[in-house]
Amino acid sequence: MSSASKLMNRLGIDLPIIQAPMAGVSTPAMAAAVAQAGGLGSLGLGAAGAAGARKLIAEFRARSNRALNLNVFAHEPARADAAKEAAWIARFGPRFEAFAAAPPARLSEIYTSFAVDDAMLALLVETRPKVVSLHFGLADPRRLAALREAGILLLASVTSLAEARQAEAAGVDALVAQGFEAGGHRGAFDENAPDDRLGTMALTRLLVTHVRLPVIAAGGIMDGAGIKAALALGAAAAQLGSAYVGTDESAADEGYRAALFGEAAHHTVMTRAISGRPARSLATSFTALASEIGDGEVPAYPIAYDLGKALHGAAKARGDFGYGAYWAGQGAPLARRMSAGALTRALAAELG
């Protein structure tokens, strides 16, 4: 049995296709459509909180009884820096004024890391999704053991061989090899450590060669040809995010969709100014502004995101969509307008 067949059997799916979780973009309708078409549907819970996550899970299960992947952020909780945060607010004051709005008086850690979120852990153990995936690092052994004891399969995003070996030692079931061309937040365990910026194909082959776990290729894959290439290098499946951003069920707003299907898709930018961690975005007014800002000036994740979201809200209220977190990878120009189910079926047909 091939590595792809083995992983598909374990995940309970018919296709070696995983829809990326994409917190804020994926929806229960999207995940269910992908699941019903034979792939693995996913929901990003990093910004949801336990109560919000419970609702999302229920909405998915009302649409599908197939396998579901729930993604959590396992970053180190933020270290506040009042002086840096005050300077950040002051820096963007004129931008808020331009939209007849006031910046936040102070910035907060708007998301709770799974590393310290007991309510989320309890919910996952209770609801027992088929899969839980980890981003930004690994949870402590107690949390991972609780998930395993609940019969949940564990995936971990990694960006290097060193991270892959840590994940393997922690007992995860498969690795998501996130290449540098991937859209959204870079999954590096330590965002301040040196980054070799390995591309998806190089990283996939490296992990297949040196690690025993199944490898799921992620980053820049938009069609069946990309999936085939990943499988040919030994990947057991491919994870696609940007391909699903423009689907009917996506939560992407009109500005996000316009950028995805416009010139901005050809000029993605890696920046930490929007959220506090490196993330690949479509080119926007925000990324242009970010090019002038040093990494050391940006508050910690997700504290910086508090201001980023407020600025987007102020601009959007005035009809300006240039300040959204429009995450997308380098394959963005290949995005297609269709439903998530139709896209999954098209990918399967292209895969052959």
| Largest sheet: number of strands, sense, barrel closure | 8 strands, parallel
Nearest-angstrom radius of gyration?
Answer: 19 Å
Please state the second-level CATH architecture of the largest domain: Alpha-Beta Barrel
Topology order in helix (H) and strand (E) letters:
HEHEHEHHEHEHEEHEHEHHEEHHH
Overall mean confidence score, pLDDT: 97
Percentage of β-strand residues: 5-15%
- What distance separates the N and C termini? 18 Å
* Helix content estimate: 40-55%
Number of helices: 14
CATH topology of the largest domain: TIM Barrel
Residue stretches low in confidence (pLDDT < 50, at least 5 long) are none
Q: Quick one: how many beta strands?
A: 11
* CATH top level class name of the largest domain: Alpha Beta
Structural class: alpha/beta
- Biggest sheet, strands in spatial order? 1-9-8-6-5-4-3-2
What shape does the CA trace take?
globular
Count of structural domains: 2
| CATH superfamily descriptor of the largest domain | Aldolase class I
